[in-house]
Every structure is written in C-alpha cells, then in structure tokens.
C-alpha cells in the first residue's frame, strides 16, 4: 500500500536535503560550527597536550637517528681497521732470540771505516758542552 501522505505528483523531499541559508532544518543554531569555542580552554588544553606529545616523539626520533649515525660510524671504523694491516705483536714481533739478534745486527754499523768517515764528515762540535734539558747556558 501506498502512504497517502506521499503522492506521486509532489516530489519526494528528505529533510536532510533541504538547506536554507547554508543550514539544514535540523540545525537550528546558525553558529553550530563555532560551538567548539564554547569549550576553548579544553580545546587549548588538548592542543597543548598534542603539541607536547609531538615534541616528545620528535625528540625520540632525533635520538634514534643519532644512535643510528653513531652505530654507522662505529661500523665504518671497524671496516677500516679490517682493511688496513695493523701491528699485531704476536705476528709481527720476532719469536726467537736469534731473530732479535739478526734484527739488532742490521741496525749496528759494523764497518769501522764507514764509522770514521761518518765522524770526519760530521758538522757537530766535539768541544761543545753537554746538553742538559731545562738548563739555560749563558754565552760569555
């Protein structure tokens, strides 16, 4: 059955579709969109709370980026150490007394004629006073 209040000649109008001066019939208060200002203090408190949360999250994010950066620096440092050959005493120092003696002999000048040539060609003054650190000498 048909509803007698709805006739086929009159258009069907739903109350939500009717808007007068930018407001629907249900919204009798033309300032409804500004009603949040009624509770402006609560709004400001919530906004302040959200801002504090945002700043806290930003600070944590910055700390995480910093930790990641430090971790990458340490990783690069370890990779550099692996690339370069470093002094390792167990590997690089001689193990026996013979090896130490051989290295010591390589350092000593064994030819006496080359030693005399070195002394003759020297620019050092053999009559100079012995240097003592921290003592000032007066030139007389």
Features:
140 residues, mainly alpha, two-stranded antiparallel sheet, 49% helix, translation regulation, Polyadenylate-binding protein-interacting protein 2
Summed up:
This protein has 140 residues and is mainly α.
Walkthrough of the structure:
- One of its GO terms (cellular component) is cytoplasm.
- Belongs to the PAIP2 family.
- It comes from Lanius ludovicianus.
- This is Polyadenylate-binding protein-interacting protein 2.
- InterPro entries: PAIP2-like, PAM2_motif.
- The protein is mostly helical and 140 residues long.
- The chain has a domain at 56-85.
- The protein has helices spanning 40-83, 89-92, 97-107, 112-120; strands at 19-20, 23-24.
- Strands 1-2 form a two-stranded antiparallel sheet.
- The longest helix has 44 residues, at 40-83.
- The chain is elongated and about 120 Å long.
- 0% of the residues are buried.
Please write out the topology.
Blueprint: E1 19-20, E2 23-24, H1 40-83, H2 89-92, H3 97-107, H4 112-120
Antiparallel strand pairs: 1-2
Helix % is 40-55%
Fraction in beta strands: under 5%
- Rg (CA only): 47 Å
* Overall morphology: elongated
Distance between the termini: 138 Å
What is the residue-mean pLDDT, rounded to a whole number?
76
Tell me how many strands there are. 2
Would you list the SSEs in sequence order as H and E?
EEHHHH
Count of DSSP helices? 4
Secondary-structure content class: mainly alpha
Unreliable spans are: none
Largest sheet: 2 strands, antiparallel
Instruction: Write out the strand line-up for the largest beta sheet, numbering strands in chain order.
Output: 1-2
GO molecular function: mRNA regulatory element binding translation repressor activity
GO cellular component, one term: cytoplasm
Pfam family, one: PAM2
InterPro entries: PAIP2-like, PAM2_motif
């Amino acid at each position: 059955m048909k509803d007698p209040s709805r006739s086929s000649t009159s258009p069907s109008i739903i109350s939500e579709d009717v808007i007068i001066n930018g407001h629907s019939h249900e919204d009798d208060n033309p300032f409804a969109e500004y009603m949040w200002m009624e509770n402006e203090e609560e709004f400001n408190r919530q906004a302040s709370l959200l801002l504090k949360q945002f700043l806290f999250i930003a600070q944590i994010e910055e700390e995480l980026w910093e930790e990641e950066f430090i971790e990458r620096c340490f990783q690069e440092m370890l990779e550099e150490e692996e690339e370069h050959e470093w002094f390792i005493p167990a590997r690089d120092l001689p193990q026996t007394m013979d090896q130490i003696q051989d290295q010591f002999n390589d350092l000593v000048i064994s030819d006496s004629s080359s030693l005399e040539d070195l002394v003759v060609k020297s620019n050092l003054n053999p009559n100079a006073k012995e240097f003592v650190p921290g003592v000032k000498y007066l030139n007389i």
